[in-house]
Amino acid sequence: HSHSGTQDQSVLGAIVIDPARPSPVEADRDYVVLLGDATPEDSDQVLRNLKADPGYYNYSKRTLLDFFDDAGEKGLGAAMRDRLDWGAMRMDPTDLADVSGYSFLVNGKSPRANETFIARKGERVRLRLINGSAMTIFDVRIPGMKMTVVAADGNDVEPVRVDELRMGVAERYDVIVEPEDDRAYSLLAEPIDRSGFARATLAPEQGMEAPVPPNRPRALLAMSDMGMAHGGDGMSGMDHGNMNHGKMDHGVMDHGSMGHKAAGDAGGGTAGGTRPAGWASGFPADAKVLAYTDLISTGMRDDNRPPEREIAMRLTGNMERYVWTLNDEKFGAAAPIRVRYGERVRLTFTNETMMAHPMHLHGMFFELENGAGMKRPLKDTVIVPPGQSVSVVLTAREIGAWPLHCHLLYHMASGMMTAFIVEPPSAAESEVTPDGASVPLVLHGKTAPNAHSAHSMHGEH
Ligand SMILES: [Cu+2]
How far apart are CA 216 and CA 231, in angstroms? Predict the structure, then answer.
C-alpha cells in the first residue's frame, strides 16, 4: 500500500507467500479477508480538521444525561470523580478513535454488498484476516463459530481457539473455521468505538445471509486504564494527592503515577494479560478473546542471547494540537535509531497517551516478549494499549534504513515515525557476527546508510 503523505490506504492488496515446505495447516478453502475503512472526505482535509479541532470527529461526546446514568449506576461521588478526572486531563472518555464517519469494508465491499465466502459443513476454511484500514482497530468475530488462530503476521503459531480477536491496523491473523451446519454465518468486524461495522458472510452458496446483531456497547476508557487507581469511595477520593494535574496533558503525563509495567527478560512477558481487557474492552465476559500471551510460535527462536541494549521508545503526543510523536519528537526532528548488524536489541514501547498505537517495523520481524520462552512469536506489528508498556527483541540482520511507526495513518502523518537503521559491519569487524549469521559482502550496490537516509527509506516495503 501507499505510504506517502496522507494518501488514503484504499490502494492496497494482499500478498500471500506459500511456504516452501507444505504448510502444517491444511485447509479445503483459502480466502483473504481484507478489512478496510473508507471516508468520502479528502484525507488531507481530514488531517486539517484534526489539526484545527482534535475532537472534530468525536460525535459521541458524553452528555449530561450520560452523567446522570453513571451517577445512577456508580453513585454521584464516583460519577463526579470520573468526570472531574477526564476534565482535568482535558480529554473525553470517548477518545477511542479520533476519526469517524468511516464506512467499513471487507475486500472493498460495504456491509450491504455483503462479500460472501463459500464454506460448507465439515470443511476446513482458512481466512487470512488483514487489517488494511487507515485508522481502525477492529474486533472480529463470527457468531456461532469458533476461530482457530494458526498464524500471526504471517508466522505460524500453535493453534488457539477463540471467539474473537482484536486487530490493530496492519496486523494479520490466519484463522481456521469449520462450519458445523450448511447455513450462513456472519463475519463481523466492529471498530472499537463501535461507530459501524464491516460484514461478510460464510455460506454454502452465494446470496445467503445470516442475522447481523446490533453493535455491542462501546466500552469507555476508565481511569484504571491509565494505571490511576483511586482508593476509597465517595468524594474523599477527589483530592488526587498522587496526581499532578498541572502536568496532565496528552503530551506531558506524570509517569510516576502511571504504573508502567517494567520490561522483563527476553521471554519474560510484558505484553498484556490473558485478554486485551482494560482499554475499551467491550467484550462479553464469557468470550474467549485472543491475547498476545496466547501466541506461541510453532518454531524455536534461534537466537536466545539477552539483548545487548535496550531502546526505550515512548509513545507521546499532544492531542490538543494533534501532534503524535515518538520520545516527544516528530519524524525528521529526531535522530534515527542506529543498531549494528547482528546486534541484539530490545525495543520497549511505553504508551503515554490515551489511545492504543499499533507500532509497526519495516524490513524484519521482531520477537514479542509475551512469556512464550524460546517460542516467542514473530510479529512486525504490536498494539501498545494506553498507559501500558510492551517490549520486543530482535537481532538486526537486515542492513538498511527502515521505518518504525504507528500504523494509524494520521498519527504517522503527523509525526509518529522514526528511522530504524541497521548499520553494515565495518571492515575491521569479522565477516561472521556473534550470532553466527554471515554478512552479505555486496549490499546490492547500496552505500552505507548515513544521516540523510533517514528521509529516503525503503518505501517499497
Ligand atoms: Cu498512533
Answer: 30
Ligand 1 midpoint to CA 358 (Å): 6
Burial class (CB in 10 A: 0-12, 13-18, 19+), 257: middle
- Expressed in angstroms and rounded, the spacing between residue 211 Cα and the centre of ligand 1 is 34
The CATH number of the domain holding residue 397 is 2.60.40.420
pLDDT at 424: 83
If you measure from the C-alpha of residue 95 to the centroid of ligand 1, how many angstroms do you get, rounded to a whole number?
Answer: 13
* Residue 169 CA, ligand 1 centroid: distance in Å: 10
Number of domains in the chain: 1
What pLDDT was estimated at residue 268? 29
Neighbouring C-alpha atoms within 13 Å toward the C-beta of 374: 7
Nearest to 247 by CA among 236, 258, 261: 258
In a domain, 434, yes or no: yes
Handedness of CA 31, 37, 42, 48 (dihedral sign): negative
Distance 162 CA to ligand 1 centre (A): 26
Q: Would you state the cell numbers that stand for residue 389, as one nine-digit string?
A: 508498556
User: Is 4 a member of any domain?
Assistant: no
Q: Going by C-beta distance under 8 Å and a sequence separation of 6 or more, which residues neighbour residue 65?
A: none
Residue 221 confidence (pLDDT)? 62
Distance, CA 237 to ligand 1 centroid (Å)?
A: 32
Residues surrounding ion ligand 1 at CB below 5 Å:
357, 406, 408, 411
Say how many C-beta atoms besides its own lie within 10 A of residue 146's C-beta.
Answer: 16
Give 326 or 226, the one with higher predicted confidence: 326
Q: What is the pLDDT of residues 155-198, one digit of tens each?
A: 999 999 999 999 999 999 999 999 999 999 999 999 988 888 99
Low-confidence winner among 115-124, 225-234, 305-314, 390-399 (lowest mean pLDDT): 225-234
CA 296/CA 369 separation, integer angstroms = 11
DSSP H/E element including 69 = helix 64-74
Q: Within a domain: residue 372?
A: yes
pLDDT in tens, 90-144: 344 445 555 556 789 999 999 999 999 999 999 999 999 999 998 899 999 999 9
Whole domain around residue 438: which residue ranges?
297-455
CB 137 within 8 A of CB 199: no
Q: Which helix (H) or strand (E) holds 71?
A: helix 64-74
> Cβ(135)–Cβ(99) under 8 Å?
yes
ipTM: 0.89
Going through 220-322 in order, the beta strands assigned E by DSSP cover 309-318
Strand partners, 186: 201
> Residue 66 falls within a domain, yes or no?
no
